[in-house]
Amino acid sequence: MNEFFIKPKIKFGIDSLDYLESLTSKKYFIVTDDSMVKLKIIDKILEKLPKNSEIDIFSEVIPNPTVETIENGLKKLIKFNPECVIALGGGSPIDACKGMLYFEKKVAEECSEKIKPFRHFIAIPTTSGTGSEVTSYSVISSGENKIALANEDMLPDIAILNPEFMKTLPPKIIADTGMDVLTHSLEAYISLKSNPFTSAMAIEAIKLIESNLLKHYKNPQELYHREKVQDASCLAGVAFNNSSLGINHSVAHTIGAKFHISHGRANAIVMPYIIQVNKNAWKEYAKISKELGYEFSTVVEGKDAFVKLVEELKKEMQIETSLSQVGVEFNEFKSKIPILIKDIKKDICTEYNPETLSDEEYVKLLLKIYFGNNDI
Ligand SMILES: NC(=O)c1ccc[n+]([C@@H]2O[C@H](COP(=O)([O-])OP(=O)(O)OC[C@H]3O[C@@H](n4cnc5c(N)ncnc54)[C@H](O)[C@@H]3O)[C@@H](O)[C@H]2O)c1
Ligand SMILES: [Fe+2]
After folding, report:
1. Span 345-367, mean pLDDT?
2. Whose alpha carbon is nearest atom 9 of ligand 1?
3. pLDDT of residue 1
4. Best residue for ligand 1 mutational test, from 263, 319, 343 (most atoms within 8 Å of Cβ)
5. How many whole angstroms from 66 Cα to the centroid of ligand 1?
6. Nearest CA to 134 among 12, 263, 267?
7. Per residue in 245-255, pLDDT tens?
8. H or E segment at 124?
9. Which CATH number fits domain 9-167: 3.40.50.1970, 3.40.640.10, 3.10.20.90, 1.10.8.60?
């Protein structure tokens, strides 16, 4: 049966943080990272929470959060037993917080507790971004692997989109996270599970990225473009939460975990090569180019016009075009090809990709990505 749904209420705009003033809980647990404390972004949250409430902060989340991070946070969460949990930060703190809430429920189920813990869950993203504030996914790193958990129990009750927080983002992170948004919307649009609802949101997100990402990258202080990229991030999150992603993400998860490349950058590096191998979706890429107003006569030209946009964005934002450019050593890469293919195939995002690749095709794809050469 087909379904489209949105769970969190989304509070957005410059005054969206005022929502926190309406809260009546007595105990708050905040999951965040060190940067949010150093940049004093967390102070903006603390100022708004009810006076005399008890607050505990877990600020030890690292980028690409690990199983250990979740375990440590979970212990603190259970001990403190809050009524309300707030995740503040990029995808890493939000995913870590979701992981804690997920495993807390699992533990309760296994102990056959009749009353499962209920925590009012608020997500406040500070990157634009993963869209994690509106998705039922949490990506956890374990050794050299990234595992994507999927469960609706992890969906926040409230998402607060406040563009103020994105002012402090370094351009490199704007580039990486912005390209993640483009990948989400693109993969939602071409997914085998796409539908009119997801496609409408995905195409709007792509348009917003095309018109605003570079401007936001060049001038993070300017509110208009910052806000539009944030809107795109959330729209793309709702779209892919309903239609699933594709092998751009599977490959990015795998190479990101093995060679320590940030999530968005890994997506951006592999994107032009994935578009070329996704032949079953060339028509869809061409449709996107049409929506963007590009002129072309054939499907191949339409698809190429979109690839050109991706390459231009990458060039302007100084994103590498290959794994060799990122400094991955060839012999190490070559020795890992079999395990890379195994991990890509079992990644949760592979199932609804419009094209199914053979092992031989994956080898070719990975070599193209390594050398930055589409003609291999
Ligand atoms: N749950 C999902 O649906 C989903 C989707 C895509 C990716 N992910 C996962 O999300 C993680 C990546 O999240 P991300 O790209 O948002 O980055 P991140 O949360 O890892 O943050 C990257 C860096 O930016 C800093 N930062 C965050 N906000 C800032 C701000 N406003 N000002 C200055 N610095 C700031 C952080 O402290 C960190 O050092 C990965 O683990 C990825 O696999 C999850
Ligand atoms: Fe992503």
Report:
1. 97
2. 91
3. 82
4. 263
5. 13
6. 12
7. 999 999 999 99
8. strand 120-125
9. 3.40.50.1970
